Amino acid sequence: MSFETEPVQDSPPVTSHAALQWHDRATDPSVSPGTAWVHAQRVDASGPLINVEIRLHRESQTLLLFDAGSITTVLALDELREDVYHAVKHALPEDHE
Predict the structure, then answer these.
(1) How far lies 67's CA from each of 45, 54, 71, 74, in Å?
(2) What is the pLDDT of residues 82-95, one digit of tens each?
(3) Higher pLDDT residue, 48 or 88?
(4) Burial (0-12, 13-18, 19+ Cβ within 10 Å), 94
(5) What distances in angstroms separate CA 73 from CA 84, 88, 95, one per listed residue?
């Protein structure tokens, strides 16, 4: 995985699990998930995602989930489970609705 080496201000820690998901799921993994988080749009969600902070990073077509002080999960928009899709569909780009 090749992420930029300079830390981005306000970039949260990323679990190794989320880093692997980022590498596998992001359409452009050339930036780090922490950098993507800083540039992503906050999403209000319901259902299974009510207790985590979520951000939509349009450039990589991913949702980044933050819990317990770290980015813990990266979800590809085109691979969302039905319950997750319905929790965030109001914030998705038109081609994913």
Answers:
(1) 14, 9, 6, 12
(2) 999 998 988 887 76
(3) 88
(4) exposed
(5) 13, 15, 22
Of 10, 27, 39, the C-alpha closest to 74 is 27
Taking the CA atoms of 19, 20, 24 and 29 in sequence, report the sign of the dihedral they define.
positive
Report the range out of 49-53, 67-71, 92-96 with the highest average pLDDT.
67-71
Residues 6+ positions from 61 with CB-CB distance below 8 Å: 26, 27, 76, 77, 78, 96
64, 55, 49: which is closest to 14 by C-alpha? Answer: 64
- What SS3 state is found at 43? strand
- List, in sequence order, every beta strand (DSSP E) within the chain: 41-43, 53-57, 62-67, 70-76
What's this model's pTM, rounded to 2 decimal places? 0.85
User: What span, in angstroms and rounded, lies between the C-alpha atoms of 50 and 94?
Assistant: 23
